[in-house]
């Protein structure tokens, strides 16, 4: 008989060891991709440590945010965060699935649970930004009903902005 494995998505404290490990994996991957593309090198280790330490994820803590961790067969494998930007709009951030767990539906599930978390915070719209080289992320958001829009922030690395209107909870 085949063994089924499943994703579970649960809230996590941004400062937990699991959250910190996923943030490190996420930041290392996206930073290395940028540096390899534009400078032909990986992220400098000192810069990596400085940036990881500076971005604690405190804005993803209740009552104005949520950090979600996806576990595949019990193993931490991905994350997504939401934070209120104002009373009606939440930002989606840190959507990440570990490379060896991709292709198993985790990213779409993390985004769906993040949308529910944003609704629970009172948001009616979810916005996000991403870079041009993160083509997989852009394809995911488009597939999940996000519409590319004009800029909604001045983030240094943002090149594409998306939004999605959230249907009210019945």
Automatic annotation (TrEMBL):
<keyword id="KW-0012">Acyltransferase</keyword>
<dbReference type="InterPro" id="IPR000182">
    <property type="entry name" value="GNAT_dom"/>
</dbReference>
<dbReference type="InterPro" id="IPR016181">
    <property type="entry name" value="Acyl_CoA_acyltransferase"/>
</dbReference>
<protein>
    <submittedName>
        <fullName>GNAT family N-acetyltransferase</fullName>
    </submittedName>
</protein>
<feature type="domain" description="N-acetyltransferase">
    <location>
        <begin position="21"/>
        <end position="167"/>
    </location>
</feature>
<dbReference type="InterPro" id="IPR050832">
    <property type="entry name" value="Bact_Acetyltransf"/>
</dbReference>
<dbReference type="Pfam" id="PF00583">
    <property type="entry name" value="Acetyltransf_1"/>
</dbReference>
<keyword id="KW-0808">Transferase</keyword>
